Amino acid sequence: MELENIELVATEEIEKCDDLDQLNETRVKYLGKKGLIQGFMSKMRDLSNEERPKFGALVNKIKAAIEERIKIAQEKLEEKKINKKLESEAIDVTLPGYKFNTGVIHPLMQTIEEIEDLFIGMGYEIAEGPEVEEDLYNFELLNLPKDHPARDMQDTFYINPNVLLRTHTSPVQARTMQAKQGKPIKVICPGKVYRRDDDDATHSHQFMQVEGLVLGKDISLADLKGTLLEVAKKVFGNEREIRLRPSFFPFTEPSVEVDVSCFKCNGKGCSICKNSGWIEVLGAGMVNNNVLKMNGYNPDEIQGFAFGIGVERFTMLKYGIEDIRNFYLNDQKFLNQFKGVK
Ligand code: PHE
Question: Residue 316 and which of 17, 48, 84, 166 are 20 to 30 A apart at CA?
C-alpha cells in the first residue's frame, strides 16, 4: 500500500468496525509492532539523508491521524456497548405484573378466626386439647357416667374402652378446670370433633366446634345471653337478636338452645328459618354443679356458663351453603368463592 493511501484506507476500515475487538484488530494491523506504519518506518533506513526527515515527519503525521481516528471510534464503540447493556437491563414499568396464585383461607377457618377475634377482644384465652381423648374427660368429668343415656347422642369411634375420638371440645374445658384448680376461667376451645354419624348433607363424622367456658363469682345466665348476642351480631350482622329456649345437656343446668333472628328475612319468615323468624344456632347453659364439683370447684363460690358453637353450621347459615360435604372436598371452585371474604 502507498503511504499516501494508508490514512484513507485505515479510516474506512476503522469506521466499519462494529465492536471493540474488531477495532483492536484494526489498531494492531496499522499501529502494532509488526503493523503497516511500522513497516514504513523500517523503510526509512533505505532513504537518503535529505529524504528521511520529510518521510519520517509524514509517517508520524499519518500515524497520529490514525491514532486519533481510533481513539474517536473507541469512544463511540464504548458508548454503544454501555447503551446496549442499559437497553438490555431496562425495565418496562408499563408491563402488567405477574399474577400470583394465592390460596384461600378455608371458610371454616375464617369463621373460627372471626369468633376467636371477638373472644380475644373480650379477654378470653384460647385453649386446645387432644383429639384422641380419654373417656374420663370427654364424658365422665362432664357428668356423663358410663351408663348415661345421653351418651347415645354422641356415639363415637373408640380406640379402646377408655380412649376415643372426642365428640366435642368440652373435654378441653374439663382439662382447663383441672389445671386452674378453683380459679376463674375465661376460655374458648376451637377444634375438630368426631361422631359416629353417616355423612349426608347436614351430618359429618368429623366437624369443628368452638366451645366456651366462663367461671367466676356471680356469673349468671344474663352474662351468657349478653355474650352470645355479641357472637350473633359479629357473625350474622349487627341487627341480630337472640332468644333462649329450655333444653338439656348433662353438663349444664339449666341448659338452653339459642336461636338467632333470621338474617335472611329479618324475622318475617322464609325458607331458611322455616317461617318461624328464628334459626337455632347453638347449645349452652350454666355449668352443672356436679361438673364444677368433679373438677375441683365449689359451686357456692364460683359459677359460670358454657356454650358450644358448631363451626360448620354457622358457616353454612352465614353463606347459604346447603351441603356440609362442600367443606371437605377441596374443590377450588367452591373454595375460591371465599377469596377476599376475610
Ligand atoms: N358439648 C355440646 C355438644 O357438643 C355443646 C354444648 C357445650 C352445650 C357447652 C352446652 C354447653 O353438643
Answer: 166
